[in-house]
Amino acid sequence: MQSSDVNLYLVGFMGTGKTTIGRIVAHRLGFALLDSDHEIERKQGKSIPQIFATDGEAAFRAMEKEFVDGGHQRKRTVVACGGGLVVQPGNLEVLRESGVVICLHASLDTILRRTQGNRNRPLLDVDDPMERIRTLYAIREPIYNQAGTVILTDGRPMLDIVQHVLRAYRREASEFARSAAAKAKHGR
Ligand SMILES: Nc1ncnc2c1ncn2[C@@H]1O[C@H](COP(=O)(O)OP(=O)(O)OP(=O)(O)O)[C@@H](O)[C@H]1O
Ligand SMILES: O=C(O)C1=C[C@@H](O)[C@@H](O)[C@H](O)C1
Ligand SMILES: [Mg+2]
Where does ATP bind (predicted)? Predict the structure, then answer.
């Protein structure tokens, strides 16, 4: 695989900007954009809150797994992942084998501000969303921190974040392509 074809996976907590930044980065790279949440909604014909309410979170996590394992293109695609996608065992390993993984980070206050007043994240549609953010973040933080290069987004203009993502992606895509070529040569 050429380094210019390697997929980019954006991971991180809700509200860190994966969908928003992913759209701009995909445009800059001339890549397709896939958003795991939107793909699942399209396939199910239901919104995420409806899926959580009628099928339950475990069913949603199985849909995410299906997306990761077989439901997406492996070339020239930016994938904006749902916030909890890499938390499930096994998913991060598949993403790492399929391309470059970059994690967007924001402080808890920023996350609250960016997600407030929006009811399409069922896990935060509770009386005390900050308490829920704190609890979920404490569980997930170690996973996000080892998922890939972390890009800080607090108080940064979108285009500044886009530049940082592109720089990290280009560097890591070359390494990914080199390592994929070496594995292919040695039959592994
Ligand atoms: N760097 C930024 N500065 C200001 N606002 C931002 C920034 N990044 C994202 N936002 C805003 O925050 C909100 C949430 O962003 P977005 O939907 O991209 O997050 P996400 O990481 O995809 O969340 P989820 O995991 O729930 O899908 C949007 O309204 C977006 O415009
Ligand atoms: O962090 C999470 O667990 C979630 C994030 C969103 O992107 C959606 O995938 C859903 O609301 C769950
Ligand atoms: Mg998103």
Answer: 15-20, 121, 156
Determine whether the annotation assigns residue 61 to a binding site: yes
Number of neighbouring beta carbons within 10 Å of residue 132: 16
pLDDT band at 118 (very low <50, low <70, confident <90, very high): confident
Domain ranges of the chain: 3-185
What would you report as the CA-atom Rg of the chain, rounded to the nearest whole angstrom? 16
Q: How far is the CA of 148 from the centre of ligand 1 (A)?
A: 19
Question: Going by C-beta distance under 8 Å and a sequence separation of 6 or more, which residues neighbour residue 144?
Answer: 11, 12, 13, 86, 103, 105, 150
Query: What confidence tens digit (pLDDT) does each residue in 75-99 have?
Result: 999 999 999 999 999 999 999 999 9
Nearest-CA residue for atom 4 of ligand 2 = 83
Q: Is 18 labelled as part of a ligand binding site?
A: yes
The residue nearest atom 9 of ligand 1, judged by CA position, is 17
Starting from the CA of residue 132, give the closest ligand. 2
Q: What angle do CA 134, 84, 118 make, to 5 degrees?
A: 70
Task: Please report, as a single letter, which amino acid is at residue 174.
Answer: S
Q: CA of 76: how far to CAs of 89, 119, 147, in Å?
A: 25, 32, 20
Strand bridging mode 99-105 / 149-152: parallel
